[in-house]
Amino acid sequence: MENGQPLPQRIKVIWRFDALWLFLIALAVAVGSYVALQFWSVTFFHWTLWLGVAGAIVGPLIIFLLIPYWYRFQRYQISDDDVELQSGFIFRKRVAVPIGRVQDVKLAAGPLFQWQKLQQVTIQTASTSHEIGGLDPEVAEQLRDQIIQLAKEARQYEV
């Protein structure tokens, strides 16, 4: 789906903040492990401390460095029959949500999304939900309206 719509570039800022939060959480776990090991004077588990520190630094760093590649493969496309979503750069995933199965379309924006003036579109079916995260508000509303209109038309033809 190379001709699908890419997400706005500002989504990368949110992904970087997610990597930063992951780093801070992993670092807090590593520091907590260090304090616990010092408190209980256990020498057997010191390798876990270094493993935690390495994970706290290397994991988020790898995620941070891979954000441009991850961004390249995040796409969506709307047709009369379905909504196609593509994600993943190592493990590619393409999902086609049939328009006739759409029950609800929601828009949401948490604090980071609001800060970057982005919205998340959630497409709800009877069995699951799918998200397109990080769209401009105008595009998100237009997308929601388009999907709802296509779903109404699909239901009319089913009867």
UniProtKB/TrEMBL annotation:
The chain crosses the membrane at residues 20-41, 47-71. The keyword Membrane applies. Keywords: Membrane, Transmembrane, Transmembrane helix. Coiled coil: none annotated. Residues 71-147 form the YdbS-like PH domain. This is Putative membrane protein. It comes from Secundilactobacillus oryzae JCM 18671.
